[in-house]
Amino acid sequence: MPTTRQPKGRLYTLSTLRDKGIKFVPNHIRRLVKKGRFPRPLYLGAHTPAWTESSLDEWLEGLEETERKRGADIGAKRPATVGNAGG
Question: CB within 8 A of 53, min separation 6: which ones?
Fold first, then answer.
């Protein structure tokens, strides 16, 4: 008898992604998945996508890393500010 692998951790559906802090509408999530910018879901049924907690955690960590790099790039390109030399 074949065994089914159970994903480790919690599963998040479109309606529970907000619990993870992901507040995109379903159509936006589908577009991101199609573009490869959001984890591909597992399907619990024909029309029920779900994501593992670990895949969402990895995606969120990637976003944080991108933002850190972007912030460092912006800081490096920002010219030094000149104080008010009024007298």
Answer: 9, 10, 11, 12, 20
Distance (Å, whole) CA 43 – CA 7: 12
Computed from CA positions of residues 12, 15, 16, 19, in that sequence, does the dihedral angle turn out positive or negative?
positive
* pLDDT of the residue at 27: 97
Q: What type of residue is 85?
A: A
Check if the beta carbon of residue 7 is closer than 8 Å to that of residue 41: no
pLDDT in tens, 44-73: 999 999 999 999 999 999 999 988 888 877
- Domain boundaries of the chain, sorted by first residue: 11-76
pLDDT band at 84 (very low <50, low <70, confident <90, very high): low
Dist CA 42 CA 55 (whole Å): 11
